[in-house]
Amino acid sequence: MTTPAKLYGRELSAYDEVDVDELLAKLSQEELTMLAKEVDPDDNFLPPSQRNNYACEKDPTGPLNRKKLIEHINKQALETPDRPEVKPYVPGVIRGKKWIPPPPPEKVREAEEQITIDLGDEYEQALGTATQEEIIDLAAILGFHSMMNQDQYHASLLNKGQPVGLGWDGITKATKQKVYPMDPPNDTDPDKTIDRVKANDQSFVDLNWNNIKNISDEKFEKLFEALKTNTHLEVLSLVNVGLNDRTAQLLADALQANSSLRVVNVETNFISPAGVVQLVRALLATTCVEEFRASNQRSQVLGNKTEMEITRLVEQNPTLLRLGLHLEYSDARHRVASHLQRNIDRNCRLQKQARASLSLRLPRGRPPAVGVDSNFFNLTPPSVETTTPTTDRRIVEKPIIDNESISDKKSVTGDGKFVLAAPLDINPEPHS
């Protein structure tokens, strides 16, 4: 059991009924001054002169001059003599008692002892004749990261050869950092972009107000009001522009009326979780937004209730393909990712069907002309003088042979010429 706290030999509960005002009224002015020096109140509403214990009774010599004060402190520090040493310093001589570390415990010493493992003559010979670079490669393959530095590990995995001069005791040198130039400031004029959006300019499809400071709420109102009637703007980027819940509600109303936006990015603003839910709900009214990003807002954690509501709204959206939000719960992440993947697959199928139907609607080329053999016009008509056969035979029409069948019946002679194969002997009266 814990001992209760005591004050002057009495428990703290004994002072609950003590009247503090009555005790303070019995104190004199000197006693109150002494008590004020002992008490250090932690009250931000009191000036610093009344919150500290130091009370300067000297009269002020003038206004504060920081430069002269620092010069006086440095001069006083240089003029103040050092404290005399009890034992003067002598190079190489230890003054006082030298610290000796205690011996390690027995368990640690046993763990540090080498462990002998019988690997067999073949492995013993291979490891005994292996070079240091080969052993480092083997350690990297086996995953012994603590036995080598980072350069050796990556060189072994990529088969680049070990760095020269690095062994088991090698130290990785820091690589020189790449200096990237600073991004130029965003020189977009908000007033001009609002006019272009309001005029429904066909060539203006990307609006970028990222990192523009001090944009008034009136400009946001004009922009979102113009978005309701715009039919050509496709990308809206409002990153780090100071959007709040009021302007986010205006944006949600604009998204419900707009029919051309495909990408909406409102990251790094001051939108509350309820405002994010309003924006996601507004995406249900439009069928054109494919990408929505709203991470890094005022509240880093949305909460379970808000994430489940966002998940339910996303599952009802058939056109959203990408969502930029930090969801803490795995159930919400899994459901949102599965639904977005289904939307992406459905979009791919619709694009394939659209391409197939477009290819069917395109006009086809003119069919090639049918060629007629010139021998067709040199046919000799049957002679009128030809006598009719006396025997009763059936009239057998010869089958028409096209060019393909003729080409199939061609054969090659010894001298390389093509000749027609002999016609088949077909007897019109097999039973005669």
UniProtKB/TrEMBL annotation:
GO cellular component, one term: myofibril
InterPro entries in the record: LRR_dom_sf (IPR032675), TMOD (IPR004934)
Gene3D superfamilies: Ribonuclease Inhibitor
Highest taxon, organism lineage: Eukaryota
Record has Cytoplasm as a keyword: yes
Primary localization: cytoplasm
GO terms of biological process kind: actin filament organization; myofibril assembly; pointed-end actin filament capping
Protein's recorded name: Tropomodulin
Species name: Euphydryas editha (Edith's checkerspot)
